[in-house]
Design brief:
The structure is a single chain. This protein is an all-alpha fold. It has one domain. 60% of the residues lie in helices and 1% in strands. A hairpin with a 5-residue loop joins strand 1 and strand 2. Helix 6 crosses helix 13 and helix 9 crosses helix 13. The two termini are 31 Å apart.
């Protein structure tokens, strides 16, 4: 007699059928915290040109927030042969939203900037992560066949930086650069590391102190050595987008810098996850809808980005906390039910006409692309 595992909607599958489905609030909290950091990073981007504090904050943030998102996405990804439903969801949850929002950005740029250069191979602003998620899912079953999958993803990430022809086309440079973090998330679940070490069950006081110390040290280093980081163009190193030739010239040791940055990102991600609340709160549910925030927030910020309204804002001690608070509010607002009802056809299209089997486009048991399962 076979036993079918019951999936925790926000955690790994369990082996028993007698237990009811339950959510692990930690993962929804982590998703929402990550998306707040994404919004915040984009919101303060215009402040960094006039404020050293904002620039240091920006560098510390970009050192880990997208790696953390990739780790979460990998943790909830399956490495087995995909079913028809899973294959269809790559189309409905990733490819179609990418096409829709890339089209919207093309129209927006034409209306606002008066220029049109439709090129779906060059993702607009935040859309690169959708393509990255799609590629991550496609290559994971092959990585899982290898003996040392994490090692090979690091080799791929570091090696891709030496090849100038691997660029932002289809976000390939960023995808390969961040691949180790996605693979790390999958590895943690595949080896059952989180459950075996009780990483999200217990949180002793010293772990929170250590986490705060690590993040504070990163912020202090970003601020104290800011002239050095500007000189070496650390900001663009943290994007995992440019080749080493564009960042450091033809230096053989450039790959070592990426390795150091990846190790730093893992340390900061561990500190970040250690501080994520374990309980359920009113805002926890919004962690199920991070793609709404991810895809829509850039349209809200676009007028401020293009108008220069966020340039020259002084004093920093007032505007940086204010922009931070507004970023949290924006992330909350874009995940609310009214916003989801309006934009669901764009963010979560269900094109029954596209499939030979229309049920493949069903929204039942829909997943957020980062892995959060929800009823609709």
């Amino acid at each position: 007699m076979s036993t079918t595992g019951t999936a925790d909607p926000s955690g790994p599958a369990t082996a028993s059928t007698s237990r009811p489905r339950r959510r692990v609030p930690f993962w929804d909290n982590a998703r929402y915290a990550c998306i707040v950091l994404v919004v915040l990073g984009h919101a303060i981007q215009r402040l960094i040109y006039d404020s050293d504090i904002a620039f240091a904050f920006y560098l510390a943030l970009y050192a880990f927030h997208m790696p953390a998102f990739a780790i979460i996405s990998g943790y909830f990804s399956k490495s087995g042969s995909p079913t028809k439903t899973q294959m269809a969801r790559v189309l409905t949850d990733i490819l179609l939203p990418y096409v829709i929002f890339e089209t919207l950005w093309t129209v927006t740029k034409w209306l606002v900037e008066g220029q049109v250069n439709p090129n779906p191979s060059q993702p607009s602003w935040t859309l690169w992560f959708l393509l990255a998620l799609g590629i991550f899912r496609l290559v994971l079953p092959y990585l899982a066949l290898l003996r040392w999958p994490l090692f090979w993803t690091v080799v791929i990430s570091v090696g891709s930086g030496y090849l100038p022809n691997i660029d932002s086309t289809f976000s390939l440079s960023r995808t390969l650069g961040l691949l180790p973090f996605f693979a790390l998330g999958w590895w943690l679940r595949d080896r059952d590391i989180v459950a075996r070490l009780h990483l999200i069950d217990a949180r002793p006081w010293w772990s929170r102190v250590a986490a705060i110390t690590v993040l504070a040290a990163a912020g202090w280093a970003a601020w104290h050595w800011l002239p050095l980081w500007e000189q070496v163009d650390l900001r663009h190193w943290l994007f995992y987008e440019d080749s080493y030739a564009d960042l450091a010239g033809e230096q053989w040791w450039a790959g070592g810098i990426r390795i150091v940055l990846m190790l730093l990102a893992v340390l900061l991600c561990a500190a970040f996850f250690a501080l994520v609340p374990r309980g359920s709160y009113r805002w926890t549910v919004f962690g199920q809808y991070t793609m709404y925030v991810y895809l829509l927030h850039s349209f809200v910020l676009y007028p401020f980005r293009e108008s220069g309204a966020l340039r020259g804002l002084e004093p920093t001690w007032l505007w940086l906390p204010l922009v931070t608070g507004l970023s949290v509010v924006l992330a909350l607002a874009l995940a609310t039910a009214p916003v989801r009802r309006v934009f669901r056809p764009l963010v979560e299209p269900r094109p029954r006409w596209l499939f030979r089997d229309p049920d493949l486009a069903s929204g039942r048991g829909r997943n957020d692309p980062t892995g959060s399962r929800r009823p609709r």
